[in-house]
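Supplementary Note 3. Input sequence used for the single-chain structure prediction.
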Amino acid sequence: MSSQISSLLSGVASDEVRDGDPSLKLGSSGAPLLFDNIHNLRDLGGLHGHKSRRIGAGRLFRSGNPGMASSNDIDKLRTLGLDVVIDFRAAEEKSDEECRFADAFDWMALPVLEGSMSMTELVPRLRSATRQEMDDFMLQLYRDFPIKHQAAFGRFMKEAQTGRTLLYHCSTGKDRAGFATLLLLSALDVAPDVIFANYMESNRRNRGLVQGLLTRLASLEISPDVAMPLLEVRPAYLQAALEIMRQQWGSTERFVNEALAVDVEELRAHYLE
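The predicted structure, written as discrete structure tokens, is reproduced below.
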């Protein structure tokens, strides 16, 4: 049962329909890229950053777990010219069945939330908690991102600073990938309302996946109402991380510059057009 829930929360749900991102195109044909087993995959290209310069298309991608990609998915991902794929999942969230993807790409592990997403810890919590307790659990995870997981997110930002073409992901592409996107877009000087809109977009993109997960979680004696904080994003979650950075460093910008030692001018030179 634990492995069953682990696969569900890792986004391994091959019977769910994946929505394609119309901004992702296949070569000169201009056909949208649709994926069999990868959800919440998006290109950050086109967003306006510093001095109204746009983020270049096809350079920075975020997604849910691509590890169970089909052969067709892998062929499509290869058209994106990815230099590295960054994985924020902990070891206990991964599957032996992901070896095909590992063989196809330079897949870098930068684990965040080790232990917190372990099924031996998470399943009993989901079964006994109230919705408010799970909401509080998620708020604390976000507060921990800039403190306990500073090294992993700092390494991620250093990879971006090299100007490589990146795909970064967690399990469903919303929390750890969402915080990483906050850091990246803040460094590129994207407007806060645009950053929040990008963050909240995960709820729409994961809608079909979440509905399938809720049905199956209910069959495992886990209340859908209790599980929802784990399966969706809320503005208060990202705000909790922002508040910690403001309290400790004065602003997100200072956190990126001082705590993570990122050269934002170099980052902007690589990705803004």
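The CA atoms of residues 138 and 237 lie 7 Å apart. The first strand starts at residue 21 and ends at 26.
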